[in-house]
Amino acid sequence: MFVIAHGFTGDVDRPHVRRVAGVLRGYGAVVTFSFRGHGRSGGRSTVGDKEVLDLAAAVEWARGLGHARVVTVGFSMGGSVVLRHAALHGGTDAVVSVSAPARWYYRGTAPMRRLHWLVTRPEGRLVGRYGLRTRIHHRDWDPVPLSPVQAVPEIAPTPLLVVHGDRDGYFPLDHPRMLAEAAGGHADLWVEPGMGHAEHAADDALMARIGDWSVTAAG
């Protein structure tokens, strides 16, 4: 069973989310859902903080369906969520994090500066609500949640795969390398030539490789 954690401004009805789910369906059952504040889901997005609870509920629901093995697969924001979920809640048999940040508050690229404007400015949150179907909470994190790189050492012995494109416009390669280093040799790191960011850039061939890795890693 795969539980898919989409990226920021995604939701279960987005074509790119449905596509990656369709590929993974060839390797096992798939659960998709929309994080809080995204698409038709209620509430407001906390951009990776409380979303860990959403993923925990989805994993619990998947277990309740009787599936003996559960693999979480997250993209970008969802990639950070699957790492933190595995560290804080456990209950998964393998974890795949694609295009995830290693640390919070990164503003080193133009897309991330635009994202911070979207999240922190009232006019940005209006764009999110009406232009991107994403309702963003106005409050700052308090306390600041465990960062992805802090979470990674707590995931072992659960198998972990970190995937990142060498043309990712949001997070440069120091992010996946930090995550892999924090795993202390426990994680597999795939740096994908020519790949951009998250679901849009994860083509069917890559998703098939992720499916193969997951089936083997989860037993």
From TrEMBL:
SUPFAM superfamilies on file: alpha/beta-Hydrolases (SSF53474)
Keywords assigned by UniProt, alphabetized: Hydrolase
A Pfam family per the record: Abhydrolase_6
GO MF term list: carboxylic ester hydrolase activity
Domain called AB hydrolase-1: residue spans: 3-203
Entry keyword annotation includes Transferase: no
Family: Belongs to the AB hydrolase superfamily. FUS2 hydrolase family.
PANTHER family found in the cross-reference section: DIENELACTONE HYDROLASE DOMAIN-CONTAINING PROTEIN-RELATED, POLYKETIDE TRANSFERASE AF380
Protein's name according to its UniProt entry: Hydrolase
Native source organism of the sequence: Streptomyces corchorusii (Streptomyces chibaensis)
Lineage of the organism: Bacteria, Bacillati, Actinomycetota, Actinomycetes, Kitasatosporales
